[in-house]
Amino acid sequence: MEKSKKLIIYAKQLRNNPTDAEKLLWYFLRCRYFKELKFRRQVPLGPYIVDFICFSKKLVIELDGGQHNEDKNILRDKNRDGWLENEGFAILRFWNDDVLRNIEGVLERILEKIDTLP
Predict the structure, then answer these.
(1) Are 15 and 52 in contact (CB under 8 A)?
(2) Where is the DUF559 domain positioned along the sequence (predicted)?
(3) Does the pLDDT of residue 73 top 80, yes or no?
């Protein structure tokens, strides 16, 4: 099976099994509830799957669990962010704990970022 089909299948699995943090953030981003912007979740983009994306603002939002604090994953995330930025996307990263414990602060940070984007 080609790589893009594998990504599409994997993205669908991720959408069907969201983390608690993804469920909570999606509650606020879905259905154009958030500044009337259309967000999508678990979207294949190039060689990656992004957690949340708003194409009209070229904004990617990533939620990270503890595994992203490991050296090999820090490097992967840096490479991934570089690829996304090279494609013209702005990236916001939040720890799952931040979303679960401080959703208001996370939403405020997203709003601040959106206000800086064309």
Answers:
(1) no
(2) 7-114
(3) no
Q: Which two tokens stand for residue 6?
A: 């594998």
Q: Residues 6 or more apart from 115 whose CB is under 8 A from it?
A: none
Look up the pTM and report it: 0.92
CATH topology assigned to domain 3-116: Endonuclease; Chain A (3.40.960)
Measure the CA–CA gap between 54 and 58, rounded to whole angstroms: 6
Cα 75 off chain centre by: 17
User: Contact at 8 Å (CB) between 43 and 49?
Assistant: yes
How do the domains of the chain map onto residue ranges? 3-116
* Residue 72 CA neighbour count, 13 Å, CB half: 1
Cα distance between residue 71 and residue 65, in whole Å: 14
Percent of the chain surpassing pLDDT 70: 92
Residue whose structure tokens are 């099994």: 17
Report the Cα 37 to chain-centroid distance in Å. 15
| Angle between helix 103-116 and 20-29 (nearest 10) | 50
